[in-house]
Amino acid sequence: MAPKKKAGKGAKEPEVKKKKGGKKDLSLAYKPMEMPINEEIREFYHIQIRDLEDRLAWYQRKWDEMVVQEKLFRQEFEQLATNKKEIVAFLKRTLNQRVDEITDLNEQLQSLQLAKEMEKDAFEAQLAQVRHEFQETKDQLTTENIILGGKLAALEEFRLQKEELTEKFMLMEEQLQKQEREHKDYVHDLEKKSVLDKDRLRKEIIQRVNMVATEFRKVATSQMWDTTKRAILENNTMTLQLAKISQQGLKLLQENEQLRGTQDNLCQQLELLENSQKVMARHSRGHQKIILMLTEKCREQQQGTAEAERLRLLLNQAEQSLLQLQKDNQALRTHRDQLNLQLEQQQAEVQRLQQELTKEQKVRVSLETALAQATSFLQDIVQMQPEEVDGDLDAVFQLQHKEMLRHLLVILSSAVVLSPRLQESQPCGLPEEGQGSNQPLRTGSLLQQLSSSIPYRPGDLGLVPRWIHIPPNPEDLRLLSHTTRVGSFRAHSLPEIRTSGSQKKLKKFSLPGVSLLSK
């Protein structure tokens, strides 16, 4: 802008020199009319410069706030990056630990499966052998049991027969004893009777002899023959009776001998039965020993089956624990996938925010360059002084002045071109804010502040910025530049300047407002 200024001045001097002689009267005629306009324009330019300085201070303050927010956002982004790295490292470490645990568990599972298969084969072989032995033992015991059952039935029959024989023997002994007692009593009675009969007969004989003697004495010879005959007959009858009694005694003795023979036979049979009972008792003790051995083997087989069942339960528990570990592994994998998805989403969000930040920085740089060009252009316009020829203003200066103002308007219009894009991007930006719920709070507040500023309104010159009350932060004020602090002080210390009625005529020189917002 400075070379253009010099060129404008160099071209202006010869034209002014050429027109000095011919236009003295015209300049003198128009001089009292041009001077107040020049002062009003100068005052208007001063007001515009002051407004632009205030606006520049406001933009500088906004820039400092944006820098502070950017620093805070960058710190948060770095914190998030460090947190992300720590989380990723922790997840990788946890994943490696889980993978190591899973590999160890898989190795243990394989070893357990191999051991299980080996033990299963061994137990199946042992079980088959035990079943075979058990079947053989069962068959053998069944046959022995059948034999023993037959023997036991025979023993039972023998026991019944023995009981019957013992009962018969007891009955016969009782009968024999009874018969012996009866026989003894009968013999004693017979002996007693015979003794008594003998004594009675002797007495009777003696009496009869005495009677016979007496009768014989009495009866003498006449009755002797009858008495003797009668005595002989009585004696014969008595001898016959004695012979019968002796025969009956012999019969009783023979019966007693027979009973004694039967008693001896029964005693021999009893001894034989006792011997056979002893033999059967020995056999039964042997069979009891065999039964005890078989019950012990059966108990051992039951213990083996219980041990096999316990091992089967342990195997089922190991399989269930393996399934649980596999489920935990699957859950950890799904959690890892979810964390990876969240990490990718955060990375995409960070990339989007970085892209938006770069766009904002580019737009800010372009607007700052446009603002710097406009300020330098305005400074050049203010520094331009019209040369007076006979008290009149130079028309060439007026034309150059208008041309420079037109260039300034073009520059500012090029800066205003960004405002329609902002108006188009605002409706599209709202759903993104609704969708991006995971953005930081400072980024959302920054977007709200940028979207809340209106680029242009009808009738608004755009020279005075729209003030928004932002509470100052002592930590942020330390980071502000000296220009921002002085500009804010000047903005608050300047008095209000009211435009006069003559300035209303210069509305055609007013400049539109420049929006510094971007998409």
From TrEMBL:
Entry's Gene Ontology molecular function annotations: microtubule binding
UniProt keyword Ribosomal protein, yes or no: no
UniProt key word Transmembrane helix: no
Keywords from the named record: Cell projection, Cilium, Coiled coil
GO cellular component annotations of the record: ciliary basal body
Main location: other
GO biological process, one term: sperm axoneme assembly
Subcellular location: Cell projection, Cilium
Coiled coil spans: 92-193, 308-370
Region (Disordered): 1-24
Domain of life: Eukaryota
Family of the protein in this entry: Belongs to the CFAP157 family.
Protein name: Cilia- and flagella-associated protein 157
Organism from which the protein derives: Catagonus wagneri (Chacoan peccary)
This protein's encoding gene: CFAP157
